[in-house]
Amino acid sequence: MRCPFCGHEASQVKDSRPTDDGAAIRRRRQCEGCGARFTTFERIQLRELTVVKSEHRREPFERDKLLRSVSIAARKRPVEAIQLEKLVSGIQRQLETSGEAEVSSKRIGEMVMDGLKGLDSVAYIRFASVYREFSEARDFEEFAGSVEEVGRG
């Protein structure tokens, strides 16, 4: 593992433990070159996934990109980081175990919306406004109205 501080190639693992959600191993490392300590995370990856975008462009699935987008949607909301980690881990696990090497960005977006809907209605609406590309305030208003109805029903 290359040191993020000096670039030295060798480091020693000083401590390993599972993350709170159990989906990864957290490792504390010490660089053999400069002595700096840093943390790495190791996750299981069952298969390489390719995301097929709406323009038929393909790119590798990036867990961090997905986590970033749900974190932005949930910013300043009463949603814990561990809840977002579990949501993203669950989506990734479902995608990897589906048996498909390619998955549409639309499918991922729908999975995120389903997960956020159960966590926080504001984060759900925020994500939907970007994902569904609301172009007018009316689009946002109609969608938000449908969420209120679901919440009351």
TrEMBL record:
Top-level lineage group: Bacteria
PANTHER family registered for this protein in UniProt: TRANSCRIPTIONAL REPRESSOR NRDR
Organism: Sphingomonas ginsenosidimutans
Composition-biased stretches (Basic and acidic residues): 11-22
Domain ATP-cone: 49-139
Pfam families: ATP-cone, Zn_ribbon_NrdR
Cofactor requirement: Zn(2+)
Zinc finger (unnamed): 3-34
Chain intervals for the UniProt region annotation (Disordered): 1-22
Record protein name field: Transcriptional repressor NrdR
UniProt-recorded Gene Ontology molecular function terms: ATP binding; DNA binding; zinc ion binding
One GO biological process term: negative regulation of DNA-templated transcription
Role this protein plays: Negatively regulates transcription of bacterial ribonucleotide reductase nrd genes and operons by binding to NrdR-boxes.
Co-factor note (free text): Binds 1 zinc ion.
Record carries keyword Repressor: yes
Keyword entries, A-Z: ATP-binding, DNA-binding, Metal-binding, Nucleotide-binding, Repressor, Transcription, Transcription regulation, Zinc, Zinc-finger
Family recorded in the similarity comment: Belongs to the NrdR family.
